[in-house]
Each structure stands twice: as C-alpha cells, then as structure tokens.
Amino acid sequence: MLLKPKAKNARAKRFLVNRDPKIVENGKTALFVRGSTTSQVILDTLKDLYSLRKPDAINFTKKNEIHPFDSETSIEFFARKNDSSLFAVGMHSKKRPHNLILGRTFNYSILDMIELGVER
C-alpha cells in the first residue's frame, strides 16, 4: 500500500484534497501547446480545437521547445503541473509541414500519441 503524503499547511491540504479520488471525477483537461516553429495553419487549427474544448482546456501561447517523440519529459511535466490528460502539440518544419501531434496521458505519463498532417 502506498503512503499518502501529509500536508504541512492549509494550502497543501486543499491541494491534496483536490487530487484525491472523487465519486464524480473532474473532466479531462486538454493542453494546447505551440512548438518552437508553427505555421499559421497550425495556429488556426489549435485555436479551433481549443474553442471546442474551452471550459476544460489550457492554451499555451508562447513557443516551447517540445519534441514529444524524442523526449516526453516536457509533456509529462506540463501534464502534471496543469493536471491534464489530453494534449495537442503543433509544429511546422520543412520535413513535416503543418504537423499536429495529439496524445493522451495516464498517471502523468504518456499513454499514446498520433501524428497528423494538416492541409489548408
């Protein structure tokens, strides 16, 4: 059996109570992340997907050095920090133009990902 961490102050206690199992769980939160280079097509696609998931979504507007297939640590960090289980990363390069990566996490580690090409 795993030991449950003890809270040292009221703020930490509220945080731990929020993470406890519930009878009715919270909805799945989605992250929408810009890559280091993104085209306008991908930005519009991310914006449209964000508007569909709006109450349960977090949009990152700044550029991030993220390569989910090479290193998943940054996605796992963002998922843990924002308590999210779904993510979308948009990138653009000469080799893979208008690239969109959709994925899901379980227990803050990447479960699966799919890479899609978006056309105009």
Helix content: 25-40%
The biggest sheet, with number of strands, parallel, antiparallel or mixed sense and barrel status, is: 5 strands, mixed
* Total helical segments: 3
Secondary-structure element order, as H and E?
HEHEHEEE
Number of strands: 5
- Counting helices, strands and paired strands, the structural category is alpha/beta
Short description:
The protein is an alpha/beta fold and 120 residues long.
Topology:
Elements: H1 10-19, E1 30-34, H2 40-52, E2 57-63, H3 73-82, E3 86-91, E4 99-106, E5 109-117
Can you walk through the features of this model?
By secondary structure, this protein is an alpha/beta fold. The chain is 28% helix and 29% strand. The protein has helices at 10-19, 40-52, 73-82, and strands at 30-34, 57-63, 86-91, 99-106, 109-117. Strands 2-1-3-4-5 form a five-stranded mixed β-sheet, sandwiched between helices. It is elongated. The N and C termini lie far apart (52 Å). The model has no long low-confidence stretch (mean pLDDT 88).
